[in-house]
Amino acid sequence: MAWMKLDLQYFAADEKTEKATPKKRQDTRKKGQVPKSQDVNTGVLLLFMFGGLFLLGGYMRDAVLNMYRHAFTYYVHQDLTQEQTHTIFVEMTMETAKVTAPLMGIAVVAGIASNLLQVGVMFTGEPLKADLKKIDPIKGAKRIFSARALVELLKSLLKISVVGVITFSIIWINKDQMMMMSQKSVEDAVSFFGTITVIMGIASALALLLLSVLDYTYQRYDHEKNIRMSKKDIKDEYKNIEGDPQIKAKIKEKQRQMSASRMMSEVPQADVVITNPTHYAVAVKYDDQESDAPIVVAKGVDFLALKIKDIARAHDIVTVENRPLARSLYAKCEIDKPIDEEFFKAVAEILAYVYRLQEKI
Questions:
Q1: Which CATH architecture has domain 260-360?
Q2: Measured between alpha carbons, how far is 113 from 117 in angstroms, rounded to an integer?
Q3: pLDDT one-digit tens code per residue, 74-125
Q4: N or C end of the chain, less CB within 10 A?
Q5: CA 320/CA 356 separation, integer angstroms
Q6: Of 18, 27, 40, the residue nearest 218 (C-alpha)
Q7: Cα–Cα distance between 280 and 308 in angstroms, integer?
Q8: How many CA atoms lie within 13 A of 87 on its CB side?
Q9: Mean of the pLDDT values across residues 216-232?
Q10: What are the boundaries of the region Disordered (predicted)?
Q11: How would you class 356 by CB atoms within 10 Å of its CB: exposed for 0-12, middle for 13-18, buried for 19 or more?
Q12: Mean pLDDT over the full length of the chain
């Protein structure tokens, strides 16, 4: 029973139940693992592109008509030579670029804006690194038949259905006008169908953006689920950041030992040791060449206090019992620092007593 209980505790510690820490989020972001919906990119791109067509459609139509008009009224009468062919190719390429450049610029802006909207500014090369796990057929099959793949399939079917319903509805509403286009001029028919196409595009883009909100919410939920941490992971992370508590405790203990050793080496230089008498001991030194006030060179309680008094006896340093002063000096004064002004009078009286005693000796 005992080993079963230990196993349960072990598995509970490894269960991913805790929210990711800020460091874990930062590390996953550096690896390029962020919540992101491709539907947001698609919706924003379609909205920008069809919006651009709506605003720039007249300019693009006139530019294309002028290009064809120039080609069939000017180029068609020229001799077909190598130089002339090169000239025609360069001029037509420039004109085509003038027509498509605005839309290409809009597409670039839309792509950057949609990514900034979701993940902000992020530069990382981690996703580009070679990883043999990505071509593992077993893991690939697991991805294909996973719950995530099923969700993606349902999303695709939903998007196709929504876009299909929207486009069919717009065509159905305008079916009578479409039938009448056979009686109109070519220019009117092209203009009408262009307008209908833009309307269908913008409506579909708005619908995809609405669906992308749901998809982005799901992507955030899935991302948070994937970066969850176990209690053991959090403890290990804390150890990596702060250091192993046992090692830190040993370092602090070593520092205390070194500090105590250095402090004990200063006791023989003291003028007096003020005691409790059993629990506290404070060694005080006064040298008017070094400081205007007496300096605490060592202090301690219990074992350290006994050690200070032993060293003081070994070096014939006077020990004076003053319980309230010893406690106050220990609590308020730092080692190698002058005593506070409130203790000047009491310590001066003790030092005067010690100097008189030393003169008698």
A1: 3-Layer(aba) Sandwich (3.40)
A2: 6
A3: 877 777 788 888 888 888 889 888 888 888 988 899 888 888 888 777 766 6
A4: N
A5: 13
A6: 40
A7: 10
A8: 10
A9: 82
A10: 17-36
A11: exposed
A12: 79
- How far apart are the C-alpha atoms of 326 and 175, rounded to whole Å? 102
3-state secondary structure of 234: helix
What does the longest C-alpha to C-alpha distance in the chain come to?
A: 134
Residue 213 confidence (pLDDT) above 50: yes
Among candidate residues 196, 164, 162, the one with its CA nearest the CA of residue 177: 196
Which are the contacts of 215, defined by CB distance < 8 A and separation ≥ 6?
37, 39, 40, 155
Pairing of strands 272-275, 318-321: parallel
Domain edges within the chain? 22-121+129-238, 260-360
**Alpha carbon distances (Å) from 296 to 105, 224, 267:** 75, 56, 10
Query: What's the chain's Rg over C-alpha atoms?
Result: 42
Distances from the Cα of 264 to the Cαs of 34, 252, 271, in angstroms? 57, 18, 14
Collapsing DSSP to helix, strand or coil, 314 comes out as helix
Residues whose CB is less than 8 angstroms from the CB of residue 180 and which lie 6 or more positions away in sequence, other chains included: none
Residue 322 pLDDT: 84
The per-residue pLDDT for 169 is 92
CA-wise closest residue to 162 among 115, 122, 118, 212: 212
Give me 210's structure tokens. 């609405």
Name the 3-class secondary structure at 18: strand
State the DSSP code for 229. B
- Predicted structure pTM score: 0.53
Cα dihedral angle (30, 31, 37, 38), rounded to 10 degrees? Answer: 120
